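The records we work with from here on pair a chain with its fold. A complete example follows; check for yourself that the lines match position by position.
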Amino acid sequence: MFFLTPKFIKQGRLYVKAAEKKLAYNRDLWSAEATSEMERLIASLKDEVRKKNKTGVDACEKAIEEFCKVHCPMGPNAWISENVEVVLVAIIVALGIRTYIVQPFTIPTSSMSPTLKGITGAQTDSIPNIAMRVLQFATHGRSWHEVIAKDDEQIIDVDNANRPFPRNFFTYTRIKTDKGNEYFVNEHVDPVKQNLIRTMRVSKGEPIIRGYTDTGDHVFVNKFIYHFRKPTRGEVIVFLTQNIAGLGNPGPPPRQPSQFYIKRLAGVPGDELSIAPPHLYVNGAPGEEPGFKRVAEGTRTNPVGGGYMGYSVGPADFQPYNMADPRQKFVVPQRSYFPLGDNSYFSKDGRYFGPVPESNMCGSGFLVYWPFLRTGGSHFGLIR
């Protein structure tokens, strides 16, 4: 059995693998004589390992080491190339995993709330000390912001912008005032406008912004699973927006940059869908999947607060997939899928832009991996 194998035998086998790798790397660089000598040493080591001759194994290992000192000398900065090689391999493996197996995404909006939370924010009268801010960022994904007015001034513009350094790396909101001052907040413009700006006119020394933003849920998406099965009604999906005419993205990037959307899959090819608020009907019956039931049975009646509000119809001018009349039914075309957001009254989804082509489907969202905690309840764990 393996755990009873003598240590020198295990070490000898590892030497054989290492020597064979070294030979493969250098076969094109060494002379024919050096290549033959290395092959001979490897064969000798294999023979001594097979005989379980400790003295012979030790002698062969030493001979291989002396050979490598002559033919594979280590330069003064060899450690640099070795570490660079390790880092490059790690990057390649990570990119491969991200591209073909599992990819992380961040939820930016509230279209799937409360199943998945987007970026939110709130004003406060004070901000905690640095230690508490670091702890809250690690556990809650919470970032604190404070901007103090330099003059008596009025805000005239709030938009996304890039600072000179590091350019295009972080998202900033730029606040301009009538006194020519510019303030930068390391956050997307929407939560800054909606939740953080206290007043449009401020006096010198007063806060323009004082409060926090909570990051959207960070989720893992299984990009591998649709190679083995079709998307399933009721699961949370991620898809690309390119080639969806209703979203104004008729062409591929870079002419029309694509985005990733995350919604719940309401209809698969051939399904007949209709909406009679608060219910979604699939093939003439209320949706049976747990996600549909949670949305339809929600008790929330206004935009403020938690919970679900039920399904709503789309705008009347978005035909033929808005389902604005309960008698109006939409049949999902073949090789297409119909998405709906759980926060139906505040979700731009299939009711606006129609079905998603099969080629746009990226994967199934299955896990919220950060933040670990949230005020009002964490979503950490499997997505339902």
